[in-house]
Amino acid sequence: MISIDKDLEFELGEVTRRTHNMGIPVMIIIEGAPASGKSRLSNALYMSLDAKYTNFVATRPPREADLRYPFLHRYWYHLPKDGNINIHFRSWYSQLIEYKDYNIKRNINTDFKLIEEDMKNFEETLTNNGYEVLKFYITTDKEVRERHIQNLKDNPMLKWKAEEFQSRLQHHDYDEEMEYFLQGETVSPWTQIDFHNKEDAANTLYSAIITRLKKRIKAEHKNKPKTEGRFSDNFKTDLFTFDFDKETIPKHEYKEILPDLQARMREIQFQLYQEKIPLVLVYEGMDAAGKGGNIKRTRALLDPTGYKNNAIGTPTDIELAHHYLWRFAKRTPRSGHIGFFDRSWYGRVLVERVEGFASQDAWQQAYEEINDFEKALHNSGAVVIKFFLSLDKDEQLKRLEDRLNTPEKQWKITEDDWRNREKWDLYLEASEDMILKTDTEHAPWIVIPANDKRYARITALKTIIKICEERLASKNKSV
Question: Which residues form the Polyphosphate kinase-2-related domain (predicted)?
């Protein structure tokens, strides 16, 4: 057992209670080679922190279930909420090293170098959104590690632990790989701690955490961020200017085409499952643009065990206490499955910008964060397609009034629909900015004129099928 300096332990408790009360989320990452002493140091820290808001997250070698999700999925999933603390015993760094050592490339659409970039972007996104990310690397002499392993071998109850350590040491190039990360550029700096003297090591760990969190507490007393949406006085758009009368499909033609496309979509679903390719489909657009109906026709013949329809509403209190991408990262589909998003993470740069729910800095930096998030999905094997359904203001009014006057549709309309309509030009400008700044090769936007619902549904289905067929053909060529 490690003897902790009582004054440091008391001060750590005081500081972390303040960060908790101020709503500052903290992530403490502890890396180190097998038998380096990191488990004893981690446990001492865990024992010193308040259990009500501290969580211990151990990164084990990836299992089959882990490999079915994007590389960073389990770290997004375990993000601490505002004011809470996570101790990450091993982290995304260990996970990448194990992917490399075991040459795990299933469900990864790129080389490991781009996964490193995803990790860096992940840390930057967290830091930019108020997370304190503290990273520690525990080292000790090779002789000390070997002696510790021998002591475990000599204990019949702990012999299994020694065998686990030896297995990792024989297979992993952990020290060499971590040296590369320690020397490289990073958003959050590493603190290296020598465990040769365990009491000194603990004091160094506690002091570093206290110093960092005190600095953050002091910086927290700044001016309240601006919540300006920064809109033009007389906004004019070229992106959503259509000849809606021409973008139509006759009813009889629609009834002919739709069943064949839906049948092909079902085949695509099974092909994606067979090839373990996840599909992410995002639907944005003005109120009453037909997003739900479009999704309904796309999934009409799909196997319900292989897709999830995510109808995104107002975030809950728990969701608001996390990073804004958290509730979406948790819902990203596993390999071979399809995730529909009826509205999405783009709320940050749409409704939150227009209504002043996000600060000016927050929604402006979100464009890059969202691009990084979608690139990480792509790098982990996903096909990402984003639709914006565009209709004109007169057609929207017609649909809203139809809902109001039709009893079985009245549930679809809310006060928000009318209030949002009053801010039509603001939403239009925010939507155009969103598309221009987040339309990428790996996650393209497809803007569809949607005055004619039939035309929008057929166009979206054809687009999904075409992009998925291209991805499937590309994967088969590379095999």
Answer: 7-217, 251-470
Query: CB-based contacts of 424: which residues, under 8 Å, 6+ apart?
Result: 286, 393
Structure tokens at 44: 């001492």
Global confidence as pTM: 0.91
Residue 85 is encoded by which pair of tokens?
A: 């603390």
Structure tokens at 403: 């809902």
Quick check: 166 and 149 in contact, CB under 8 A? yes
- The pLDDT tens digits for 149-159 are 666 666 776 66
pLDDT tens per residue, range 326-339:
999 999 999 999 99
Please tell me the total number of residues recorded for the chain in this structure: 479
Tell me the CA distances in angstroms from 75 to 109, 411, 434, one per residue in order. Answer: 19, 37, 27
Read off the tokens for 178: 């971590």
Strands (E), 300-362: 307-311, 338-342
What are the structural domains of the chain? 6-219 (3.40.50.300), 251-478 (3.40.50.300)
Question: How many of the other CB atoms lie within 10 Å of CB of 447?
Answer: 19
List pLDDT tens digits, range 442-474.
999 999 999 999 999 999 999 999 999 999 998
